[in-house]
Amino acid sequence: MEKDTVGGVGRAMLDRRLGELLASQGVACTEGQRTLLLDHLDLVLEKNKVMNLTRITSPEDALVLHILDSLLLEEEVAKTDGPVLDIGTGAGYPGIPLAVMEDRPFVLMDSVGKKARAVAEFTDAMGLGAVGTTRERAESYAVDHRGEFGAVVARAVAPLGVLVEYAQPLLSKGGRLVVSKGRLSDEELGSGQKTAEKVGMRLVSRETLSLPEGMGHREIVVYEKDGRSSIKLPRPVGEAKNKPLA
Ligand SMILES: C[S@@+](CC[C@H](N)C(=O)[O-])C[C@H]1O[C@@H](n2cnc3c(N)ncnc32)[C@H](O)[C@@H]1O
C-alpha cells in the first residue's frame, strides 16, 4: 500500500506542490508519473539515512532541486530517439525522473558501486523495467557500448569539455548530449567548444533558466554528434579529467 508520507512529510501536500511546480515550468506530468517521482524521492531519503546519497534532506527542497531540476532536461531529451544514458547518476538524478516521463530504454551509470546498487534497488522497487544500472566509468563503458545511445545526460558530474569527450563515443550519429549546469563560466564554455570541435560534436543550444523560489540558476547545454573525432576515443580512464583536450 502507498505510504501517505514522503521523507516524513504529507504525500498529498507534496503531490499538489509538485504538480504546481512542474506546471509552472511547462512540464506535463500525469498523476501516475507524480506518484513514481515521489516514490523515488522517498526511497532516496530513506536510503540517505544509511549512506551518503544527497545533501538535500528536505522533501520540499528536493521537489525543486532534484525532481524539477532533473525534468528541466526533458524537453531536450524528448527531441532525441533511442536509449538514454545518465552518466554519474548518483541517487538517480536526472535519470530516474526522465525515465518516468519517457517510454524508452535508459541506463543509469555511476562509478561508485554502492550508488549504482542503490539506484538498482530504487528502479526495482518502482517497477521501471526498461531501466538498467551499471557501476562503470563513462570512459571504460564506451569501449563496449560505442554508438549505442541517442542521448546522454549529466548533471553535476564534470566540466563541460570532459562531458563532451565522455559522451562522443557513446552517442549514435546525430545523438545528443544534454547537460545541466549551475553557473557556466566563459572559460568552461570555451573549453567545451574547443573539445567539441576536436571530437566531431557541435553546440546546438544553451538555455538559461531560474529555478522557482530563488533556488538557483541553471544552464541547459546541448551538443550533437555530427562528425568523426580527430582523436581516438575513449582515451584511457582519467585522461579526460586530468589532461583535458582544451
Ligand atoms: C556530484 S554527483 C551528482 C549526482 C547526480 N547526477 C545528481 O545530480 O544528483 C557526481 C556523480 O558522478 C559520478 N561520476 C563521476 N565521474 C564519473 C565517471 N567518469 N563515470 C561515471 N560516474 C562518474 C560520481 O560517482 C558521483 O556519484
UniProtKB/TrEMBL annotation:
<protein>
    <recommendedName>
        <fullName>Ribosomal RNA small subunit methyltransferase G</fullName>
        <ecNumber>2.1.1.-</ecNumber>
    </recommendedName>
</protein>
<keyword id="KW-0808">Transferase</keyword>
<keyword id="KW-0949">S-adenosyl-L-methionine</keyword>
<dbReference type="InterPro" id="IPR029063">
    <property type="entry name" value="SAM-dependent_MTases_sf"/>
</dbReference>
<dbReference type="Pfam" id="PF02527">
    <property type="entry name" value="GidB"/>
</dbReference>
<comment type="function">
    <text>Specifically methylates the N7 position of a guanine in 16S rRNA.</text>
</comment>
<dbReference type="GO" id="GO:0005829">
    <property type="term" value="C:cytosol"/>
</dbReference>
<keyword id="KW-0963">Cytoplasm</keyword>
<feature type="binding site">
    <location>
        <position position="155"/>
    </location>
    <ligand>
        <name>S-adenosyl-L-methionine</name>
    </ligand>
</feature>
<dbReference type="GO" id="GO:0070043">
    <property type="term" value="F:rRNA (guanine-N7-)-methyltransferase activity"/>
</dbReference>
<keyword id="KW-0489">Methyltransferase</keyword>
<feature type="binding site">
    <location>
        <position position="88"/>
    </location>
    <ligand>
        <name>S-adenosyl-L-methionine</name>
    </ligand>
</feature>
<keyword id="KW-0698">rRNA processing</keyword>
<feature type="binding site">
    <location>
        <position position="93"/>
    </location>
    <ligand>
        <name>S-adenosyl-L-methionine</name>
    </ligand>
</feature>
<comment type="similarity">
    <text>Belongs to the methyltransferase superfamily. RNA methyltransferase RsmG family.</text>
</comment>
<feature type="binding site">
    <location>
        <begin position="138"/>
        <end position="139"/>
    </location>
    <ligand>
        <name>S-adenosyl-L-methionine</name>
    </ligand>
</feature>
<dbReference type="InterPro" id="IPR003682">
    <property type="entry name" value="rRNA_ssu_MeTfrase_G"/>
</dbReference>
